[in-house]
Each structure stands twice: as C-alpha cells, then as structure tokens.
Amino acid sequence: MKISNETKIGVLTAVAITLLVLGFNFLKGKSFFGKSHTMYAKFSNIQGLLPSNPVTINGMQVGNVYTITVDKDMTDIKVNMNMTKEVNIPRNSVAFIRPNPLGTTSVEIKLGDAKEYFKKGELIPTEESSGLLEEAMGKIDPVLYSVKKALHSLDSLIGTINSVLDPESKNNLRATMANLNQTTANLTVSSASLETLLNTQTGALAKTLNNVSSFTGNLAANNEKLNAVMTNMGKATDNIAKLDLEKTLTTLNGTITEMKNTLSKLNNTNGTAGMLLNDPKLYNNLSATANKINILLDDLKTNPKRYISFSVFGKKNKSTGLMVPLPDTLNAPYLEVKKEN
Predict the structure, then answer these.
(1) Coil vs helix vs strand at 10
(2) CA 239 to CA 9: how far, in whole Å?
(3) φ and ψ at 254, to 5 degrees?
(4) Which residues have CB under 8 Å from 318's CB, separation 6+?
C-alpha cells in the first residue's frame, strides 16, 4: 500500500512533537529510564535555584530539582525534588541550598542519625544557609583579627629589642619596621578592596548575583506559559491522531476511480454517450440538415410566391427553387463543415 505524503507529514509531525515534550521534561530533570520518586522541601530563599539543578548527599548527586512553586506572599517556596537513587534519609536530616557563583546552585541534604527514614513524597525539614557574602566575611574577619594581634605582639617585641640593640641595629630594625608597616598598609587596602567587592549593596559580585537572580526569576515566571504552550501542542496532536484520514483517503480514491470509469465510457464509441461525443456522422447529419433549412429559408425569402399567393389576378410562381444559399450566408459555419466532408 502506498503511503501518501500527507500521512508521512502527519506522522513526522506527531513524532517531532512527542520528542519535543520528552526532551523538555528531560531538561527539567524528569527521568524516563529508571525508577524515581519525589521528595519535597520548603525554603524562604532559594538563592537562584533552578529546575534540573542537582540534589546531592555527601557530595554525590542523588536527584534533580523538578519543579519550583511559590505562593502569592513569596514566603514559602516549595521545591519538588526528583530522587533518581534509592537512598535512606533519616528523619532528623535537613536540606539546605548551597549556592555556587562559578557553577550550579544545588540542594544538599545533610543526613542525621535517626533510625527511622522518610517515606517517598514526604516533606524534608530545611535550614537557611548563609550566603556567599556572609561566608566570605566570616573567613576574612578572623584573618584581620589575627593580623592585628600579630602586630601588637610585634610592637612589644620591638620595644624589647630596642632596649638591647645598639643604634645601628635600631636603624636597621626601623627600616624593617617601615617595610612591615608598608606591607600592613597594602594588606589593609587589599582587605578594603575585597570588602567593596563583596558588599551586598554596591559590590560588583552582588550586582552580578542580582542579575543572575533576575534572569532566573524571569524564567521561573514564564514556566506556566511554557507549560500552557506544551499542553496546547499536546491537544493539537491528539486532535490530529483522532482524524480518520485513512477512511477519507479511501473514499476519495473510490470517487476518483468512478470518475475514471465514466470518462473511459465517454471515450468509448460502444455506448450512446460515446457515440454522441466521438461519432462524426451525427455532426455531419446535423450540418446537412441545417444547410437545407438555410437554403429553404433563403428560397422562401427570395420567391415567396412559390409557397403562398395572395394575388387575385396573378398566378403561382413555378420557377425552380434555390439550389445554393444566398451570398449573405456563404460564410455560414455549416458550409465549412460541408467542404471538410
């Protein structure tokens, strides 16, 4: 059976739409080739988390973020996690978000030591994680404190040394201290520059993170529109699948076959209609009859007394009738046919 081009196009369109839907769900973190289950977590700040971002335990990926939903008050952000590995999560475990400005933000589950485990589809408790800026400042402050403490100890040491060293040695020590003060000043300037970079309001890093958050927020806001588009495409695919194209094509082929049979009969001289269309005898007879009628009318117009006499004293015209048409009818179409015959 020969497949029509319309059927091929319909099949290719359905396959393309199916692959598009499957690929979209795969990019969102939905697995199609393995067992998986769903766990949930609620956060007040997801710090740029996106669908399909990894879910890790002890540094190993055990799932992906599938969907992110938020209420109108923007206080509870629900994260739907698609767990692709079978793991036991104790009930005193907590989930928190680990931001990564140079990589991908992820959800990390810190395991507890309870003997009971969460069931599939349950809500995991969460804790707020400190942002990148707070972690950086927490590491910088102890360093600055240690530097200040070291300088104080160094001042005490220098005072002790000054009491025992000669003037030349003191001069050398003064030069060394000057260099050390310059180094300390440079370190202070570097710390100030780093603090400016990490400032939550004006820092370049903060602005970059704000831009990233704005971009990811726009994607999350348009998630419903993308879902609506995919739903409409799915409905259109269903409607196309429901059309009985094979029955329609069969009926059309039957109609075309009947038309071919009818035209074949018309072209065949065995039937009445075929003889009317193809046999030139009927045309020649009609042309001859028209020619004779035309001659009769011309003769009636030329010699009316041969047919009707109204004169009381006259006599009927007994002259010979016309044998050829008058000159005004010489170019009539039937004469050309007569010449061809």
Answers:
(1) helix
(2) 15
(3) -65, -45
(4) 306
φ, ψ dihedrals at 97, nearest 5°: -95, 130
How far CA 335 is from CA of 93, 302, 331, in Å, comes to: 111, 20, 7
What is the widest separation between alpha-carbon atoms in the chain?
184
| Contact between 68 and 46 (Cβ < 8 Å) | yes
Positive or negative, the CA dihedral 293, 299, 304, 307 is negative
With a CB cutoff of 8 Å and minimum separation 6, the contacts of 245 are 6, 7, 10
Q: Which of 59, 95, 60, 56 is nearest to 77 (CA)?
A: 95
253: pLDDT strictly greater than 70: yes
Please give the Cα distance from 58 to 37 (Å, whole number). Answer: 19
The helix-helix angle for 333-340 and 280-302 (nearest 10°) equals 130
Tell me the pLDDT tens digit for each residue of 31-65: 555 577 889 999 988 888 888 899 999 989 999 99
Using the 8-state DSSP alphabet, how is residue 315 labeled? -
> Is 0.85 surpassed by the pTM of this model?
no
Topology of domain 31-124, per CATH? Elongation Factor Tu (Ef-tu); domain 3 (2.40.30)
Contacts 24+ apart (CB under 8 A), 253-261: none
Structure tokens at 286: 């009609």
Please, where are the H alpha helices in 198-279?
204-221, 223-242, 245-267, 272-278
Domain boundaries, the chain: 31-124, 132-198, 279-340
pLDDT mean over 165-179: 74
pLDDT average, residue stretch 108-125:
92
